[in-house]
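In response to the reviewer comment on reproducibility (Comment 2.3), we provide here a single inverse folding case reported in full, input and output, so that an independent group could reproduce the run without further information from us. The structure tokens appear first.
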């Protein structure tokens, strides 16, 4: 009787240990492998081809993912995508992206799933940055976490019990469009006096340019006369140098932030408020007014003082959040 062939030992099948993560920003497009603990194992970054429409962005994502240096175990189980604009995280359809043409109704999740062969999980970029900051960044150990990103616009996200509070249709967390000063200047969406229209980098720069045009005495007039751009960073430099107008602009932006945050504290009684985005580089210029504004509105501050702290994950927040979201959906 011939010996039976020895059957080979089955290969061990450890759980695959990465997801692909994508952060589609208005300026940069980032891709990475992200481990289950949120560690970024490999990454790439390019300029987002915003003016060529969503199909070109999908092509760029696929190309960059293919160029990633694979980690030791590169088997990915899912892909998580942080995308701008209101979207439906259940279907992966982007409703619209302000200032980026062609995105209305674009099936981003379906397209990236087809291109990668992986389940794709899409969510709003600010919500995912909030998730990352709450789990691994400046909000770690606190609950709920209210997150604001103050840059070109003002985005927001709310994390309760470690999960994104997304509302009934995935659209919650648009904190930047809270009205702070009825009848004030309008944001790009036409909301008169919303937080974004008062405290974003765009709003800070607009107010400075208006002051220069009106002939107000400010060293920013020299910046304009030299042909240099007056952006929020230029206003911050002038404020740091003691320019009264620039300091007043940051004071008012801080005050608007504080009034809005006071309202968020009244609604959520958060464990912590986390502020990210480029404008927060000017923290000392707006923080005192922000604190005063917040305390005018947060009615229970006496019994529960809530810390407002700078974000910890920097430009990685959206990418890490996309990875965490893919892992969370993979496990669901
Ligand atoms: Zn608005």
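Designed residues, in position order:
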């Amino acid at each position: 009787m011939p010996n039976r062939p020895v059957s080979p030992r089955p290969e061990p099948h450890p759980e695959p240990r990465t997801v692909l993560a994508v952060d589609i920003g208005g300026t940069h497009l980032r891709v990475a492998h992200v481990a289950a603990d949120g560690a970024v194992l490999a990454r790439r970054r390019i300029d987002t081809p915003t003016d060529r429409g969503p199909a070109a962005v999908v092509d760029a994502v696929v190309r960059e993912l293919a160029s990633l240096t694979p980690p030791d175990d590169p088997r990915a189980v899912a892909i998580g995508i942080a995308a701008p604009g209101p979207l439906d995280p259940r279907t992966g359809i982007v409703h619209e992206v302000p200032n980026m043409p062609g995105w209305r109704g674009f099936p981003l999740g379906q397209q990236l799933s087809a291109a990668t062969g992986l389940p794709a999980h899409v969510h709003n970029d600010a919500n995912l940055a909030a998730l990352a900051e709450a789990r691994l960044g400046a909000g770690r150990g606190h609950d709920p976490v209210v997150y604001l990103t103050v840059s070109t616009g003002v985005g927001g996200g709310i994390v309760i019990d470690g999960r994104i509070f997304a509302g009934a249709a995935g659209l919650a967390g648009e904190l930047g469009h809270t009205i702070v000063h009825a009848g004030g200047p309008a944001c790009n969406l036409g909301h008169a006096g919303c937080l974004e229209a008062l405290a974003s980098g765009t709003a800070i720069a607009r107010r400075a340019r208006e002051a220069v045009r009106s002939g107000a005495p400010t060293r920013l007039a020299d910046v304009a006369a030299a042909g240099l751009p007056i952006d929020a960073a230029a206003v911050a430099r002038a404020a740091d140098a003691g320019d009264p107008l620039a300091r007043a602009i940051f004071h008012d932006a801080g005050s608007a932030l504080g009034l809005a945050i006071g309202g968020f504290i009244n609604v959520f009684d958060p464990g912590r408020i986390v502020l990210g985005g480029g404008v927060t580089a000017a923290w000392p210029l707006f923080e005192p007014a922000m604190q005063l504004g917040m305390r005018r509105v947060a009615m229970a501050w006496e019994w529960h003082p809530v810390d407002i702290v700078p974000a910890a994950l920097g430009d990685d927040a959206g990418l890490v959040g996309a990875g965490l979201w893919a892992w969370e959906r993979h496990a669901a």
